[in-house]
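Attaching the record inline, Q. Sequence:
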Amino acid sequence: MLRQWRPDDVDALLQIYAHPEVARWLGPATQDDVTTSIERYEHAWDVLGFGRWAVDDRASRRLVGRVGVMRQPSWGGSAVKDEIGWVVERARWGEGLATEAARAAVADVFARVGLPAVVSFALPENVASRRVMEHCGMRERGVALWAGRDHVWYSLGVDDWRRRSEQRVD
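Structure, as predicted:
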């Protein structure tokens, strides 16, 4: 389930980020980092009408990750600056949660917000995230420098999303 952020999410998100295999892709995070990130997500919602969602497990209602689109003004790989990103707790990898949540977030920004396109980027060796991008219908576009490291980047336009949505029967 996707939802807005609550004050008690900081510790839960910090635990997700602290797992060594998650930190491998995101880098280390402190409580202040996570607090600042959640404040940025909330600010994006207030200003742009979209941002990162908290992802809860449907059964337990426990935070298991985050997903959503954030505007990344310093992204230089393309003219599109709206980036879909996700993180799922390590114990839940391989269940399709990232793909399910990312598809919902993409649908939201295309159908409700009206964005024309989104990008996503990951370290080249992050095969799992690249697979999520592909499952969302994104196409690989190239490699660009982001946060001091080369990232492979993908994009999806609203017209391709519409065509894919009409054809997909899951």
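The mean pLDDT is 94. The two ends are 18 Å apart (CA to CA).

More tomorrow.
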